[in-house]
Amino acid sequence: MSTLRRTRNTPLALALAGAMLVTAPLLGGCSIINQFLPGGGGGIGGVIPGTGVPSDFPSEVPLIDGEVLLGLSVPGDDGEKAWNVTIKVSGADAFDTIKDQLTGAGFEYQELGTTGDGASGGFTKEPYAVIVVVAQADGDWTANYTVTNAATNN
What we know:
By secondary structure, this protein is of the alpha+beta class. The chain is 21% helix and 34% strand. Strands 1-2-6-5-4-3 form a six-stranded antiparallel beta sheet. The radius of gyration is 15 Å and the shape is globular.
């Protein structure tokens, strides 16, 4: 098991925590609507997931082509924000394509490990941290992106 280094800004750790919260219900076969939105409506802080990429998703973060199954945007404190997008992919090899896209866009890669036949990784490029998990759930392969930004007041 790898250890994340502590830094003054911890966007990668925050993104990982967010990815765990969002992907755990998906990987367990539970609906994110039922898990996080009581009665399938309402939402956390008025955030309601949709089936498209959020309109304010950062254009600097490339996404793999595929059917978007879930997209949401969550405002935070002091200008911080988080986004989550889940895309249907063809298989575990999609992670290699995603890694190439993100590193090609200037993101630094950090391996986080494997999930059965899938894979996960962390990517950073100021001001964003991206956690990607490619895994199989209920017979379908998905790529889950959790993106955070840390407001910088320097």
